[in-house]
Amino acid sequence: MLTITNEALASLRIIKYDRISHTRLPNVTFKIYKDTVPFDTKSTDENGEINLYDLKPGTYWVEEVFSDDAHITNSTPQQIRLEAGQAATQELVFFNDLKPGMWLVKVDSADLSKPIANAKFEIKAVDGSFGPKEFTTDQNGEIDLSKIRSQGLRGNGAVLSGLCD
């Protein structure tokens, strides 16, 4: 008598987080390889996940190829060996760092713990590669300039001039 046993195929969950806030990141693209052969390219869903089901046994190698505008692409690949019959979904977790940027915080000079909202600033790069552009502080006295490309504003390469007292 010949006995044939069917074993469940494996599943893999790829999860993408911001390293500091631990929020999950959607729309991050990964290349997936099986035994060094390209297998698929997928992007994380609104929950920062890619779920792959019914995977044949083998070594899977996962590499991030594109992140959002605010994060640095994490090009360090991860690999995992999947076996037939693994009941639990296996996971690979990736973390991204924010791209370097600049935050401007306007505070009261008499009391540095008091932020000043609605202060206007003109921001430009000395070399003319960015601006001038006007920004206004939010309710916390802050302006998030982190999405400005770093070559446009560098530490001492930026000119910040307040438009109000």
Q: Could you explain how this protein is built, in words?
A:
By secondary structure, the chain is mostly beta strands. The chain has no helices and 14 strands. It has strands at 10-18, 29-34, 37-43, 49-55, 58-66, 78-82, 90-96, 103-105, 107-108, 111-115, 120-125, 133-136, 142-144, 158-162. Strands 3-2-5-6 form a 4-stranded antiparallel sheet, with no helix packed on it. Strand 11 and strand 12 form a beta hairpin. It is elongated, with a radius of gyration of 24 Å. Mean pLDDT is 84; it is low at 150-159 and 161-165.
Summarize the structure.
The protein is mainly beta.
Query: How many beta-strand segments?
Result: 14
N- to C-terminal distance = 91 Å
Shape: elongated
Order of helices and strands: EEEEEEEEEEEEEE
Q: Fraction of residues in helices?
A: under 10%
Overall radius of gyration? 24 Å
Structural class: mainly beta
Mean pLDDT: 84
Percentage of β-strand residues: over 45%
Count of DSSP H/I helices: 0
Uncertain stretches of 5 or more adjacent residues = 150-159, 161-165
Q: Could you give a short account of the major beta sheet?
A: 4 strands, antiparallel
**Taking strands numbered 1, 2, ... along the chain, how are they ordered across the largest sheet?**
3-2-5-6
